[in-house]
Amino acid sequence: MSLGSGNGPEKNRGRTVMRRNQFQSSTTDQRLLDSRGPSDWVHTDPWRVMRIQSEFVEGFGALAELGPAISVFGSARTRADDPMYRTAEDLGRLLVEAGFGVVTGGGPGVMEAANKGALEAGGVSVGLGIELPFESGLNRYVDMGVNFRYFFARKTMFVKYAQGFIVLPGGFGTFDELFEALTLVQTQKVTSFPIVLIGRDYWSGLVDWIRHTVLAEGKISEDDLDMFTVTDDVEEAVKIMVEAQRDRHSSAPGAGEKHEGAERPD
After folding, report:
1. Are 203 and 197 in contact (CB under 8 A)?
2. With bands split at pLDDT 50, 70 and 90, how would you rate the model's confidence at 34?
3. Model confidence over 149-166: pLDDT tens digits?
4. What strand order describes the sheet that includes 9-13?
5. How far apart are CA 125 and CA 63, in angstroms?
6. How far apart (Å, rounded) are the C-alpha atoms in residues 105 and 122?
7. In which band, very low, low, confident or very high, does the pLDDT at 17 lie, cut at 50, 70 and 90?
């Protein structure tokens, strides 16, 4: 939720701005997924397909020419005086200097810091917002923003238009994106997709649990632990993204071949 210049509570619903008596605390996702209530969902849900389709179309259209980019995740609650805010800011700058755009959830905290670093470095700063009961809108450092109603449409954009994930300390939303990415890599839905966790102290408990409980009980394989890297070094995180990008190019069909005098295809 944001405050609209003396107009009381303000909320984005897709492209629509809701104020005063039009403001609703529920979200589109909530109304789609909540099974309680009258049976009129039988008549309204098929029409929601059109709205869902429009979110994919708009997202694809906005990001199709984005170029190489990295999705950065982390807590919206990180304050500007937190050292991790500066870390995220440095990360955004270094990613741009390495030739990447920066994609975040467009909110405050870590997301704002990464967008700020990217924007001030002269790079592409993207924010993919989501309708939430407590939303604050896109941060001021986003120069290409798309607002979504549905989490699943937004998640697709994070993966489809990024060459990797860098995850800073965060809460449930950050965990959701992290494990979504790990699942896609594990099931080979995405390939050559590096995942880096920044903050050894923060992530060590989770990694220990994965290793000593999940792996120990045979719920994952030893190789699954290689799907991500944990570091405190922002430069190392960016280097991993650069090397993965180089590997993708070198392994692409026809990579390294010279096409002299190539004829135009029919």
Report:
1. yes
2. low
3. 899 999 999 999 999 999
4. 2-3, 9-13, 16-19
5. 12
6. 19
7. low
- CATH class of the domain at 58-248: alpha beta
Q: Check if the beta carbon of residue 87 is closer than 8 Å to that of residue 234.
A: yes
Residue with tokens 């980019």: 69
What's the CA gap between 177 and 175, in Å, rounded? 6
What's the average model confidence in pLDDT over 184-213? 96
- What is the pLDDT at residue 254? 57
Pair of tokens at residue 112: 């704002």
The model's pTM is: 0.78
Name the pairing type of β-strands 2-3 and 165-167: unpaired
In Å, what is the CA distance from 27 to each residue of 23, 61, 252, 265?
11, 24, 42, 50
